[in-house]
Structure formats: structure tokens, C-alpha cells
Amino acid sequence: MSWTCLLAFAGHSALDPAGPQAARIGGLWWLMFWVCSGVFLLVMAALAVGLVREEVPQRRRVSRVVAGAVVATALILFVFLFASTGTGRALASLSSGAALAPLSIEVTGHQWWWEVQYLDPVLAQRVTTANEIHVPVGRRVRIRTVSHDVIHSFWVPNLHGKHDLIPGYDGELWLQADRPGVYRGQCAEFCGHQHAHMAFLVIAESPARFAGWLDSQRQSASPPATPLAQRGHDLFVQLQCALCHTVQGTDANGRIGPDLTHLASRRTLAAGTLPNTPGHLAGWIVDSQTIKPGNPMPATSLGSNDLEALLAFLDGLK
Amino acid sequence: MRRLATGLCALALAFAALACEREERRFQTLPAKSARAQPVRLTTLQPGQSLPARSGHGPYDENAWAIAEGERLFNQYNCVGCHFHGGGGIGPPLMDAKWIYGSDPQNIYDTIVEGRPNGMPSYGGHVPDDQIWKLEAYVRTMSGLAPKAAEPDRSDQMEARRSEQATSPAAPRGQKAEHPQ
Q: Which of A60, A228, A311, B138 has the smallest CB count inside 10 Å?
């Protein structure tokens, strides 16, 4: 269910490259495809020839086999040389040049969600969000990858190849989106129960829109607009929510779960598992274990009035 | 010979049954409030004839995964801030045999829910009931009260630390790391 609704609006294919690195990888894929197709056709042709032609005398047969083997080996070596040169050039271009990128993002893999932090020399200017990476179109973005629990793998097929997040070892990559769009990413290294529900979105937008988004994310949460939302705010900081979640501008500053300061501006919930609608959010708050068994968010026993207030508060976190 | 084989089979089945309890991962949580049947006694002194001692049982005392979860929560909810990793500091140590307010699962649960004078805050209503029972199960392992068979060999959560030899692309050799871990 969640898959289909996400795929409806997010690209997720290595054969539809949207950036220079995915184009390299896509080119390599097609090179491999044509080489293998050529080999397949040659083998089939040799088989066909062997089936239909007349028998050759014993002496000539041996010398032909030797000559054929020598020619085939030489040919295969040339093909391999060609393919390995292409691979090497593609890999080299993928891993160099991150230092040139003007924008740095730190992506931390958690079981089972992604923490995204836009780095800035001024600490107060840093932006923390989750499961959604906004990037400006046509600009290089440097991504630092961190993991504090197990090995995850950062993979946006339309933009880049797989990149492992290894605990205790900070990795680095860069990517660039050449056309606006929403590209789906996915953890590509088995990391526990909910590995399959550990997705994220890369949203490429024009530099002006990106700057606007970054600016809005830097703001603290707007104060609750209605009495209902105010009661939701009070519940949020008094009950268990605030132990794990942060909402900038309130007393909630837990660091265990995702930062919820601008929750309502995100497109998905629970790392790409559900679309972000009030109904899904309510289901998630009340019983997240049925939706994503094993995730660290505990069930809550809120009454319907309290739940409504909490949803009103969370809906105001634009 | 046959009797021995039958015995071994029965033993294996018994171990398998025990292992199920140990390894089961209950993601669906307990009913909202566990009703308390009897008061918890902090003292052995009682008027008249003493009532039979109540042997309370935590729901997670024999579950390795829940104990590992308890350890994660013990760190994340900052129990370590006062109790450290069992050695005590601001709060009393938890790895010794001395229990000011009782070592029964229900006693430890009450300590966490209600708080205790001179420092222990009350977490009832803030931390979900289910997680308090997991914390209780973990706290009892520190002083060896949990069944040996249930104690996990290692934490379910791996603590990542930068290896001493590691250099990252962000901090090449000879340069200081921008954000040392």
C-alpha cells in the first residue's frame, strides 16, 4: 500500500538518471548490457554453426580449436580491458570532487529512519530534519554519512550508487540533481526488522525555492494557533513524546527520535512508510507497532480528545 | 538406550520451550495499566501474623530482547546520568546487593513510577508502562537477580565508536577531525 502510493510520485530507477553520477552508472549498466548481449549472440551463433556444418577431418579439427580458443581469449581480454577502464573511470568520477560542493549535509542512519542535518559553521543556523533531503537543482551537494548503530546503505537510484554507512567511520559522497523532481531513496543494506521500511525522499527544486525552504526550516515552531493546539502542545511536552522528540521553540528536546519541528511540512511518516496525513499520523501515534513492528516508538494510551488535541498541535508544525 | 534417547529428546524440547520465552520479541505492548493486586511491602515488620510473601514477576524478566531494550532505554532516558552504568554516583549503585526500597520486580517498578525521596524522580505518566517493565528487567540483571539463561550475551544495540586507526575522508591523515566522535 505505502509502496504504491509513494512510487506514484517519486522516481526510483537507476535507468532513469537525474544527475551526472547516476548517468555514469546508467552508462556502465548499458555497456554491460550490450557486451553481455554481444557475447550471448556470438555463443548462439557458434552453436548454430556447429549444428549445421559438415564434419571436419580429425587433424584440421584440432588446429581449428586451438586457433579459435586463442582468438576468443584475446577478444575477451580486450572486452574486459574496455569494460574495466569504463568502470574505473566511472568509479573515480563518483568518489572525487566532494570538496567542491558548496552545501554540506550530514545524513545519519538510525534503525530505521534517516536523520538529515544541513551543516553550517554557525550552529544556530543548522537545520535538522528527517527522511527528507531537499537539494537545489544543478548544484553539487556534499553528503557526509554517519551511523551510530549498524551498517546502513544510502541509495538514491536516480542520483547515485549505493554508499554504505559504517558505524565509527564517517563516509562522504556528493550528488547533483540536474532536473527538479522527487526521487526515492532506500536503505540498501539489511539493518534489522524494518530495513524495508527505511526509505527517504530527495526533493530537487530550483535554488530559489530551496533557499526559501531552508529559511523556513531554520525558524522555530510557530506557537499553537488555537486552544486545542495549545492543549496538544501541553500534552506533547508533559507526556512521553518529549522524552524522544524535539520541537524547536518548546520544552521538548529529546534526541532519540526524529526532530518534529516542521513535521507538517514533510511528505511521509515513519521513513517513507506512510503518507503524511492526519489519519495516518493518528494511527502511527496510537499504535506504531502494528504499522512498523519493532520500531522504538512505544504505543500510547491517549483518549480521543487528547489525540485530537495532539494532532491539532502537530498539524500546526509547518 | 531408547530410554536415554527419549530423555534427551524431552530435554531438548524443554530447552527449546525455554529458549522461546527467552528469544520472543513482543512488539505489541501490554495492556495500559497493570492492576496491582496487593500493596508492596518495603519492610518485613507486620502486625499480627505475617502474610505470605508475594513473589511478583515482571512480564519481561525472562526475555533477552526486553532486557537489551531496557539497557537501551537506561542509556537513552539518562538513568546513567545518576546511576552511571550501575556503579552509582549521584544515585545509589544498582550492581550491588543492597536495595533501599526492595529488589522485587514490583518494588523496582514502583521506584521508577512513583519516585523515591531525596532524588529519584517519578517517571509514571512520562515513560510508558511497558518500557518501565523493560527497565525493571534490565536493572535486575545488573546485580545478578535475573535468571542467567535470560541475560543477553551482548546488547541488541551496537554501540559504534570510531576505531583508533580509522581516518575518514573528512579528516585525512595528519589533520584534526572537524567533529571528533
A: A60
